[in-house]
Each structure stands twice: as C-alpha cells, then as structure tokens.
C-alpha cells in the first residue's frame, strides 16, 4: 500500500494532480485537486489510497488523513465506488458526514451526487456507530455561525469560491478573515459567493 507520495507538484487539472517524485510522475485523482493550487511547483505530501482491482490500479489523493480514512470507509459500503466516494468528499466535510450518519439524516445524504434513498440507508446501516470513535467526534454540529444548517451544495460553493479567490492571488489569511461572512450568505451560487468575497476584500 502506498500511504503517501512526497514530491514536486507539477500539474493540476480538473480531476487529478501529478506529483513528480524521484523522476516518476504520479497521477493522483482527488475530490478537489485545486485545494493544492497554491502549492504548484512546490514540494507537497499527499496522502494516498492505492485502489487495486484486476483491471485497474488508481491512486486517490487527500490533503488530510481523515479524508483518506473516510474514503476507505465509504468504499466498504455496498453500492459506493471510488467515484461516488470522491463526490461525497468533494461536497461535505468529515464532521458533517459523520453527524449525518449518526442522526440518520437521509435528506442530507441523498443530496450527494448519485446517492438515492437505498444507498443512503445502506450507508447508515454500514457506518452508524463506527465513525465517531475513529474521527473523535462526540456530538453533532452541522450548523454555521448564524445557526443555519449548511447543505452539501452550500459547502461546495463556499469551497469553490475560496479556491477561486486563492487563484486570484489572495492569501489564506485574507480569505480566512472573510469566510465567516461568506457562510452567512443565504444562497449557494458559487459566482455570487465569489462576487461577495471580492467585495469584502475591497472593503478591507
């Protein structure tokens, strides 16, 4: 098993990153490759899951070990493959997902791409009671700073807006300062969140 790859981040595209290590370019598929945008051309360490089947071998990559662990747990659920697991990780955080499983929140779970009621029930059946201990999550909290619940669509829109602002040259500190205000926005349209974020930057 390849636990992680450490090397130069050479390429980022819509689905994957390529990391060059010891003269070899490793293609690593990620839920959101652009989370590594600010590290292109630099040394990175990406945690990897080496997916092996008779007809394929693929590396899936993660910025945090907890995301890798959740990915591996999702693969154990009947009806969920690597693409489905990545789609879930691309639209929610680990804490939110674990809370949804423990609360049997089918509405939240079926909002993920390709997840219907049958798959949602299967996830609850296979994972409930097994995740809080491993992720050190004791109680549920999927609420924002103003008390509203974030949908997977809202979470993804905020993440996409943040990555867009990073690509425009704003620093992590600048973006971190305005993120709470973005979370208070009622809509989940990425373009609107980007415009709001840029307006907030201009006020600083």
TrEMBL record:
Has three domains with a flexible linker between the domains II and III and assumes an 'L' shape. Domain III is highly mobile and contacts RuvB. One of its GO terms (molecular function) is four-way junction helicase activity. Residues 72-91, 107-126 form the Helix-hairpin-helix DNA-binding motif class domain. InterPro entries: DNA_helicase_Holl-junc_RuvA_I, Hlx-hairpin-Hlx_DNA-bd_motif, NA-bd_OB-fold, RuvA, RuvA_2-like, RuvA_C, RuvA_C_sf. This is Holliday junction branch migration complex subunit RuvA. GO terms for biological process: DNA recombination; DNA repair. It is found in: Cytoplasm. GO terms for cellular component: cytoplasm; Holliday junction helicase complex; Holliday junction resolvase complex. Its main location: cytoplasm. It comes from the Bacteria. The RuvA-RuvB-RuvC complex processes Holliday junction (HJ) DNA during genetic recombination and DNA repair, while the RuvA-RuvB complex plays an important role in the rescue of blocked DNA replication forks via replication fork reversal (RFR). RuvA specifically binds to HJ cruciform DNA, conferring on it an open structure. The RuvB hexamer acts as an ATP-dependent pump, pulling dsDNA into and through the RuvAB complex. HJ branch migration allows RuvC to scan DNA until it finds its consensus sequence, where it cleaves and resolves the cruciform DNA. Pfam families: HHH_5, RuvA_C, RuvA_N. Coiled coil: none annotated. Belongs to the RuvA family. The keyword Lipid metabolism does not apply. Residues 149-204 are annotated as: Domain III. The gene is ruvA. Homotetramer. Forms an RuvA(8)-RuvB(12)-Holliday junction (HJ) complex. HJ DNA is sandwiched between 2 RuvA tetramers; dsDNA enters through RuvA and exits via RuvB. An RuvB hexamer assembles on each DNA strand where it exits the tetramer. Each RuvB hexamer is contacted by two RuvA subunits (via domain III) on 2 adjacent RuvB subunits; this complex drives branch migration. In the full resolvosome a probable DNA-RuvA(4)-RuvB(12)-RuvC(2) complex forms which resolves the HJ. Keywords: Cytoplasm, DNA damage, DNA recombination, DNA repair, DNA-binding, Hydrolase.
């Amino acid at each position: 098993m390849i636990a992680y790859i450490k090397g130069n981040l050479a390429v980022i595209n819509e689905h994957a990153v390529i990391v060059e290590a010891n003269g070899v370019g490793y293609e690593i598929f990620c839920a959101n490759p652009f989370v590594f945008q600010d590290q292109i051309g630099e040394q990175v360490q990406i945690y990897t899951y080496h997916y092996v089947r008779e007809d394929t071998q693929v590396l899936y990559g993660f910025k945090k070990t907890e995301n890798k662990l959740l990915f591996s747990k999702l693969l154990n659920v009947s009806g969920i493959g690597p693409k489905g697991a990545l789609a879930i990780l691309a639209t929610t955080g680990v804490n939110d997902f674990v809370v949804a499983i423990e609360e049997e929140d089918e509405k939240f779970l079926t909002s993920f791409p390709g997840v219907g009621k049958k798959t949602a029930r299967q996830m609850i059946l296979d994972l409930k009671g097994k995740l809080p201990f491993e992720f050190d999550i004791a109680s549920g909290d999927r609420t924002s700073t103003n008390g509203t619940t974030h949908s997977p669509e809202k979470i993804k829109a905020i993440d996409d807006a943040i990555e867009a602002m990073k690509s425009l040259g704003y620093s992590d500190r600048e973006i971190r300062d305005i993120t709470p205000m973005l979370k208070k926005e009622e809509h989940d349209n990425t373009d609107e969140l980007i415009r709001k974020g840029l307006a907030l930057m201009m006020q600083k």
